[in-house]
Amino acid sequence: MSNVSQIAQALQEILNERVEALAKETKFIQRVRQISGADFAQALIFGWLQEPEVTVAGLTQILQRRAVTISKPGTSERFTPQAASFLERILQEVTQRQGPRRGRAHCAATPVPCSVCRR
């Protein structure tokens, strides 16, 4: 299986099996809301894959197509430190499921600035 296939499979498994638990563990979701951890993660991941320069308005439309009742300010308010932790945990789980890779490091030794996190 190719690396892309393996990553896609790991991501699908996490989005189906672990995403809501990760949302609660990171305190992204603290109570039942209109938007779920799965809604948020899938909108961001697949929205950015489809259009890397997607705006908050575009992400709001993606969420609305998923039957989430949310406004542009409501989407914007979801970009919190907890949301960043939630997405980071998803990434960690995907990389953990990939196992060690010979001759390659999974992550940088020190944190790297991420323009996506500053949107």
Secondary structure elements and pairings:
Blueprint: H1 3-17, H2 19-25, H3 37-50, H4 56-65, H5 72-77, H6 81-98
Mean pLDDT: 83
How many strands in all? 0
Can you count the helices? Answer: 6
Low-confidence stretches: none
User: Largest sheet at a glance?
Assistant: none
- From the alpha carbons, calculate the radius of gyration and give it in angstroms: 15 Å
Global shape: globular
Structural description of this entry:
- This protein is mainly alpha-helical and 119 residues long.
- The chain has one domain (3-118).
- It has helices spanning 3-17, 19-25, 37-50, 56-65, 72-77, 81-98.
- Helix 1 (3-17) crosses helix 6, helix 2 crosses helix 6 and helix 3 (37-50) packs across helix 4 (56-65).
- The model has no long low-confidence stretch (mean pLDDT 83).
Explain briefly what this protein structure is.
The chain is mainly alpha-helical and 119 residues long.
List keywords for this structure.
single chain, 119 residues, mainly alpha, 6 helices
